[in-house]
């Protein structure tokens, strides 16, 4: 059985969004093969596809973190200092994996504490260090 090893990736080696081919009908055969694998492993309701791309560079001491304001129904993905997570007693639960020729790595995470998902987890919009 394979072991999952999560290593934060740098998004700067991904192509800029305007340079990435959009998901389109040419991807249908590949996507159907992925769907069949997910179905065989009973994971159709757990995994999907994301178009990997970048908008800006991420520093070595940062990672992309999903944050949510449930009441306002807002959801963001933004860089935060890794030290911010440890200071707040949070970890980044992997939500996006990136595959490459050597395996896969964590591409994005959602904030969780030792009590589980933090629900309304909105760090300040600035000063996230």
Can you offer a commentary on this structure?
It is a single chain. The protein is of the alpha+beta class. The chain is built from 2 helices and 5 strands, in the order αββαβββ. Strands 1, 2, 3, 4 and 5 form a 5-stranded mixed β-sheet that branches. β4 and β5 form a beta hairpin. The chain is globular and about 45 Å long. The chain starts with 27 loop residues before the first helix and ends in a 12-residue tail after the last strand.
Structure at a glance:
The protein is of the alpha+beta class and 129 residues long. The protein folds into two domains: 1-14 and 58-129, no CATH class; 17-53, no CATH class.
Q: Structural class, from secondary structure content?
A: alpha+beta
Share of β-strand residues: 25-35%
Distance between the termini: 38 Å
Quaternary status: single chain
Based on Cα principal axes, name the global outline. globular
Quantity of strands, as a count: 5
The largest sheet is: 5 strands, mixed
- pLDDT averaged over residues: 76
